[in-house]
Amino acid sequence: MAIAARPTTPTQARRWQKITRLLPYVVLTLGTVVVFYPFIYMLMNSLKLGREILHSPNALPSEITLTGYTGVFTRLNVLLLLRNSVFLAVSITLLNTLLSALGAYAVAKIPFPGRNQIFAFMMATMMIPGVLFLIPTYVLMYNLGWVNQFQSLIIPAAVSVYNIFLLRQFLQTIPDEQLEAARLDGAGDIGIFWWIVLPLMRPALTSVAILTFIGSWNDFFGPLLYLTDPNLWTVQVGLLQFQAGVPGENIQEIWAMITIITLPLVIFYFMLQDQFVQAFANVKFK
After folding, report:
1. Do the beta carbons of residue 81 and residue 235 sit within 8 Å?
2. Is 90 exceeded by the pLDDT of residue 274?
């Protein structure tokens, strides 16, 4: 394999410097194309006729049509599905973010016997496949009378060990001296958490909120398993209604519904992406 020769003249040095400056922009441009192509592909096909989607899925639409979207709103109560999805996603996000922050603060900044052992046990539970909890959780929800109710999805998702881990790692960046000074001034743990820790954790909390919201919004199996009333269905379960025995029969509606499901996630992420990047830039994994 040939190795590029180092520049030996000023002209070659300037040319090499221009190439090295341009290279990151080329890589970022290619990455942008890779990331945005699936979204453009989805939006493009949602504006096509069914036969055109089947025969030319990668081509631009020869005729822009909204028949897929009108079919979705005609056959489904999309506003009800969106309301249910938003309610579940927001409820799970708020509850999970708050409880995970409390758990992370406890194992990171409150000294008590067995703190490290408890955290190690919590981390060990992440190695257990989630499918093993499927039947016990359903039996518990059934015995509580929560099947076909939103709390069957909200309560089990109220705490995430993974989120506690992320927040704990972020809390390691907060000096203990800052919290000890507040304790010397008479502040309790709740006051320290609410008035000092939470504002400092805003980037990490935003990241956890984004991840939790995306996970709850995209959850298909949970609503399908627990919610049997069509008035409680989410957009993910609503997408299932376009499944047909004939391949490609509802292809327009499927692409339109996928676009409707995806747009809130894209908007939500771009609104909070700065906080998301800042949180992971500050996390210390140790």
Report:
1. yes
2. no
